[in-house]
Amino acid sequence: MAFVTASWNPLGEAFYRKIELYEMGWNLKEGLRNCQIAAAPYGGPIALLKEPQRSSPSARPQLEIYTSSGSPMASFMWKSGVVKQLGWTISDDLLCVQEDGTVLVYDLFGSFKRHFSMGNELVQSHVLEAKIFHSPYGTGIAVLSGAYRFILATNIEDIKLRRLPEVPGLQGVPSCWTVLSQDRQTKVLLATGADLYILDNTACTPVSPSGFSPQATNIIQVAGSFSYKYLALFTDSGHVWMGSANLKEKLCEVDTKMRTPPTQMAWCWRPKSQQPSVVIMWEKYLLFLALVVLNLLFGYNLDNESVLVPELDSVRIISGTHHELLQEVPVVSEEIFKIASMAPGALLLEAHKEYEKESQKADEYLREIKEQDGLGEAVKQCVEAAGYEHEPETQKMLLRAASFGKCFLSNFRPEQFVSTCRDLRVLNAVRDYTVGIPLTLQQYKQMTVQVLIDRLVYRKLYPLAIEICRYLKIPEYQGVSRVLKHWACCKVQQKEEADEVIARMVSLKLGETAGISYSDIAARAYECGRTELAIKLLEFEPRSGEQVPLLLKMKRSQLALSKAIESGDTDLVYTVVTYLKNEMNRGDFFMTLRNQPIALSLYRQFCKHQEQDTLKDLYNQDDDHQELGNFYVRASYQEGRLDTRMSCLQNAMDEYNKAKNEFNAKATEEEMRLLRFQRRLEEEKGERMVGCSLQDTLHCLLIVGLHKQAEQLYKDFRVPDKRYWWLKLNALAEKEDWEEMEKFSKTKKSPIGYLPFVDVCIKHHNKYEARKYVSKVTPEQKVKAHIAVGDLEGAAEVAIERRNEGEISLVLSHCTATTDRTIVDRLNRTRATAGKK
């Protein structure tokens, strides 16, 4: 076990260890000297801005991007302005803050994405210092201008610049300053000499650290913890004050005996640890101090110039040759590996080692653990400790010990063991030198799997991302589909390959994978200027609703219309037609629709309800005289003035004649004659009938007693006799002119018979008048007529006389056994006699 604890250093009640993550793969001849360096948290990439080796005016800095293992990702000559600060966003984009306040944004591979400004005033006053920070709002930037004013942007994705209040008496650059994020507010803490100020949105507030040493004169370095909860201040007297970020609670104060200003200071505090610690770095010396009773500290000598990268649970140290991790040893690891430990986990590890040696001591260790009733705890300790280890061999050793121990437990729950094995397999894969993401287990849990997948995708490590998704059984739409979509979007940007090759490759790779929209990939191709590739990719998109909008955006309206029609979605067709109408001139638009009958039909339906004038133009262009005639007829009914209506009908008749539709032309002509008749009638008799149909006009004339005019209309329009007799009969009954009805019935033989006379009298509750017409009814209808007037005996006589089975049954259905007994008997006898014959 000595090899595990070889790098441990005791400090108070805890141990600290320095783990070598990588031997850097970059080739830096002068190390990190004359370089601006920015390393992203959570094992992110490293950016170096190397100053030119010769001081020629034409010499330019070199910007290089590496993985955490030193593998190159991008390198290009810096041709823009003077860079004051480099930093990384939470999504691994590189920010370069220039002297003129412009911020340039690059991706991992050095491709320029966008730029924005921190304010026009910085063009003149320039940026003196800048800091890039992360807060609950996202990635932010704070700059100090040449006017000694702080300008803040809390989220670069939604730029809202805040100009913080002036600091009283500030005539130069502060000795040190930092950005704090507290209670969802972003503030600036700065020191000028021994004075401390906090700047927020509204005020500049002087503050004083609780229990600050009177020996301290000037504060020359400040560092906030990764979570912004704690603060460390370094003074020119060598004292370090550590406390809460609001400066109200003092944790400790340590005298480092060092008067030289440090180059960097960072917190190293594992979550849930009871011992906060701060790492201070000078040029080639690293000092480690912690909050303990005696304020103990220890130091490391550094071989090369280095940079500290604060993390959630540790500090990374990057030099020109190595990348190391400095962290507090977890309690569980300490209990297992420290010398002479009798913790259950330590005994189980020893038992497993003896078991592999086939020694009986394994049984003795197990018995000792069982006597303490600590076998379950021992297994848990080994599993938990395995998660904190970086070396795969140490992980395996602990997990094998845990697996050995759980064989002797009957009720051990395997979830922790399985999840730890799964997590370690993922972590070991991303920690590999070729990937270069040295995450700890706590960082991995904090980051979440989805973010890790995103980072791998962003680095174009698609095979690894897919393998992790499949291994962790992430749902396709969240895992493999998302990775493949990003791969496809990246693939379409490769200009060196032909459109057909890329389209075929994307189709073969993606197939019908759930959760992938080809339209999104096609949209990306179109944004890259590859319209033909975008069209080819859209052929694989099964949803027309996704194809059509992009085709319209690409100005491929004809193809969009065809796709919309193929889909059978009328709303989609209307969308394309509306777009075409707005984009094309009227003539071209109509010609386009003529080639698509379905679209033309739908557009006509739309125009009938919304754009009547457009419909008329459409018919005119097509020389569709039949539809034009119909259009004028419909238009005539919407006109209030009679003259205008007559004009529309005249136009309709002309169009019908051109269409050689004689029936419609004749009908329209008769409609015009009727309107003239109605107008004349209105002028002469004062009856308002304009707009009524022929039948309604006749009815109205008969109701008001204008029988001559009704007769004239009946003859002029050749109304069928049966229709006219029905109209007059109903009108006379409605006005109860029974005398006129009787005269009318005697004018000539009724073309409709006389049963309607009976029915209409009964309908108006006049049986007396109805009986007058019973004798005139034909023999076939007399039974019904007698029944209608309530003469059952007469109905029975007719039915017996005609010996009609149906009529006999009809009369019987209206008789009752008590009151009509005689009639019923006669009908039954007649039926029986008829049956015998």
What would you note in describing this structure?
Residues 516-831 form the Vps16 C-terminal domain. Belongs to the VPS16 family. It holds the Pfam family Vps16_C. With 837 residues, the chain is α+β, with helices and mostly antiparallel strands. Among the domains are: 31-207, 7 Propeller (Methylamine Dehydrogenase, Chain H); 413-474, no CATH class. The protein has a 5-stranded antiparallel beta sheet with strand order 1-2-29-28-27, with no helix packed on it. Strands 3-4-5-6 form a 4-stranded antiparallel beta sheet, with no helix packed on it. Strands 7-8-9-10 form a 4-stranded antiparallel beta sheet, with no helix packed on it. A hairpin with a 3-residue loop joins β24 and β25. α25 crosses α27 (721-734) and α29 packs parallel to α31. The chain starts with a helix and ends with a helix. The mean pLDDT is 84.
